[in-house]
Amino acid sequence: MPFSLWLSLAAVCAMGAMSPGPSLALVLRHTLGGGRLPGVSAALAHALGVGLYALLTVWGLGALIVRFPMLFQAITWAGAAYLAWLGIKALRAGRAGALHATGMATSRRQAAREGMLVALGNPKLILFFIALLSQFVTPDMSLAAKAVVVLTAMIIDGGWYVLVALGLSHSRVLPWLQARAHWLNRITGVLLLALALRVAAGPIV
């Protein structure tokens, strides 16, 4: 995979990881309730779940492109519509959202279990990955290239939420984020809408 194409992949994976939602709320709750280690445990377990979904999506997309190109195109457009819906939802969220989650008493084992369950229990991740990864998967894609796609999605997701857990373990960070939640939601919404248009336009080359 060319480095320039990988940068595009990394950018869209980062956008998926950073978008507000139940995953952010989970890491926030476990960090506030148990401290840094439970928050990091939740982040790493969530990344494993994301990696599994990415793996299933990459293999499934390759077969779908070859056998049912029209169905693949329809699913891609559905993924673009879903990204647009997420963007509109973020724009309308204002100050509300995952940044207002509260802490809960927790342990590293509980945090890891819930991190995995939140990832695997969210079937919308499949649609999200179809919308994102459809831009990078080709019928003749090598095994190494598929591994790069999966590892990129998993490492970026885990890296982002580990940073969130480390940052939120400092008491000054959360109030700063809460005070700017409306701007974070607006920026995320605009970027998700732009990504939806990019997906609808066709594969990145």
From TrEMBL:
Keywords: Cell membrane, Membrane, Transmembrane, Transmembrane helix
Pfam family, one: LysE
GO cellular component: a single term: plasma membrane
Transmembrane segments: 41-66, 117-137, 143-163, 183-201
Protein's cellular compartments: Cell membrane
GO molecular function, one term: amino acid transmembrane transporter activity
Mode of membrane association: Multi-pass membrane protein
Official protein name in the record: Lysine transporter LysE
Organism listed in the record: Halomonas aestuarii
